[in-house]
Amino acid sequence: MNEDLAAAVGGLHVRLVTWDDDPPVGGQGVHVRELRRELMARGVTVTTTAGHGQFAVRYPNFTGHGPLDLSIALNRSIAPLLANRPDVVNVSGGPGGIQLLRHLPVPVVYTAHHTFRLSHPWYRLQRAYGLLEKSSYRRADAIIAVSPSTADSVVEMGIERSKVIVISPGIRVEAFDNLEVEREPGRVLFVGRLHEKKGPLDAVEAMRLVIEQVPGVRGFVVGSGPIADSVRRAADSVPDGAVTFLGALSDEDVVEQFRRAEVVLVPSAFEGLGLVPLEAMAAGTAVVGYDVVGLHDTVGRRGELVAHGDVAALAAACRRLLVDSTRREQLVEAAREAVRKERSWSRCAEETEHVYRSVRSAR
Length: 363
Hints:
Blueprint: H1 3-8, E1 13-18, H2 27-41, E2 45-50, H3 66-76, H4 79-82, E3 88-93, E4 108-112, H5 116-119, H6 129-139, E5 142-145, H7 148-156, E6 164-166, E7 187-191, H8 200-213, E8 218-222, H9 228-236, E9 243-247, H10 251-260, E10 263-266, H11 275-282, E11 286-290, H12 295-298, E12 304-306, H13 311-323, H14 325-342, H15 345-362
Parallel strand pairs: 1-2, 1-3, 3-4, 4-5, 5-6, 7-8, 7-10, 8-9, 10-11, 11-12
Helix pairs in contact: 2-15, 8-9, 8-13, 11-14
């Protein structure tokens, strides 16, 4: 159905605007890819303006930081955002996202994955980007926050609460059904972007401590990113090859890794919500992480959370769950049922489409 005919019969054309896209670099790219797929399955026309991937647009390299350079380009010319006359423009915002300071002739919805005030302490220069973020959100017709803590942070910027809607991302629930992979005793896993804020080096150190104390434990690291070489060296330094650096894997292989592990470590400095712990819990894997913003909403009492930066406590919590199978299974069963019931991309797309239609009607 072409866009003119779709509009005539009550159709909806949404433009997704993002730096991260398929293949995803991080959670924002996963969010865009899965949301696009589910929206299209619902009959929504979706076009995309992205910083990389099949929908990438060209933009000048002013700063060397992709999201900022794409933001500058789109603020200089909004034409790529309005091509093919979308009904609504949905921008992925926050750190790693796009800051749009121009008014558009169509409704704008922002997806706040997290905020600069959550991701950077007050003394870091990057915190200043929060002023651009605040300005962008003030111009938006609605802001979709991926978690209650992200919603609270947006409101603390001075954005009216009535504009902020919490819609958590989904997970590929069906990917974990009927997967014939056996759980391996003592297998500990890290999955994520290999960036300092995701804590991969803390994960490797925690694995080393657990390996020293519990016979038969092995660690595995999955991911890619700017500190991949440092993470690989740290893994290789653990005696007897007890920690294996697997690097980037396909989605299917990551699911298999979740199913094989007994414990997944999530030592992030912050999370908007955290797709890795959600997928781990859906796969029936126990989660141990740092007690930080975002993981409160995702993990809470469904896993073990310790003080941020306390690697010894991270290792101790992991060790307890490996040794105490009863406690581990209690956590796993409660978490798996809750996650599979509450989280799906189809639900996320349905609620997001409702926001699109609401802001279009309001305009």
